[in-house]
Amino acid sequence: MTISTDILERIFDNFTDFVSTKDEKKFTDFKSSKYIDTAENYKYSVYEEARENLGQKWWKSEDIGSGKIQNAVSSAIKTRVTHNFQTVDNNLVDWRKKDAFAKTAKNKNLETTLFNFYKSKISNQSAFEALIEEKLSYQFIAYLFFIKDRNQFMPISQTKFDEIFEIIGIVDFKTSHNLSWENYTTYIDIIKQTRDFLKTKDSNTTLLDAHSFLWIIGNQMKNAAGVITSKPKVIIDP
Question: Largest CB tally within 10 Å, which of 23, 80, 131, 133?
């Protein structure tokens, strides 16, 4: 699954115009944009708070089955976080899924998987597939992977990213109703390709910045004015 750099170039031009208008100055990089920081960079704060609350380095094998590990994971899924001294919503996982997880009875199999996953004692694929067996949703599993390592994994909103991928010319790949390790790794690879392209514009671009770039073109830009599609034209919403 390969993204056309020609499409990304056209979209990036519109993206920089959009962000420059919001910032009232020329876009130079992701870290210095006040608009991106306010609209998207809360995800860095989500990650940091989640990692602190997870506290997996303190987990012991005897904790498995006690409920302690499930409680730690639940505490890592905050509905609101502090970013730049402001309290903001964490929309990376549906609050109903968080609440459902918090109410789950002690589950030794689940805690074994979580322990082995966050301690890197099993492969990522094995952990993903075991979490599917525990009936966790795609969005929830992706969030658990994201808070393990933001340099490798990203959260997901399947319906929205299916729309975003169409914007960048990928029409045959869908994440909705396709929960699997293969599907998730393909999703991540598309974001990595986007990051690699963006690094030609801003060498410090992270995987999370690429995720934010895609989200902005498929959400804020669409809501504000229009969207660049895989065709070289702008479609303006009526």
Answer: 131
* Amino acid of residue 209: D
Residue 18 has pLDDT above 70, yes or no: yes
Q: Which amino acid is at 12?
A: F
Residue 69 has pLDDT above 60, yes or no: yes
Among positive and negative, which fits the CA dihedral 156, 98, 221, 21? negative
Which token pair is 88? 């903001």
Neighbours of 222 (CB within 10 A): 17
d(CA 170, CA 156) in angstroms, rounded, equals 16
Query: pLDDT tens, 195-228?
Result: 999 999 999 999 999 999 999 999 889 776 545 5
Task: Tell me whether residue 192 is exposed, middle or buried, using C-beta atoms within 10 angstroms of its C-beta: 0 to 12, 13 to 18, 19 or more.
Answer: middle
DSSP collapsed to 3 states, 89-130: ECCCCCHHHHHHHHCCCCCHHHHHHHHHHHCCCCCHHHHHHH
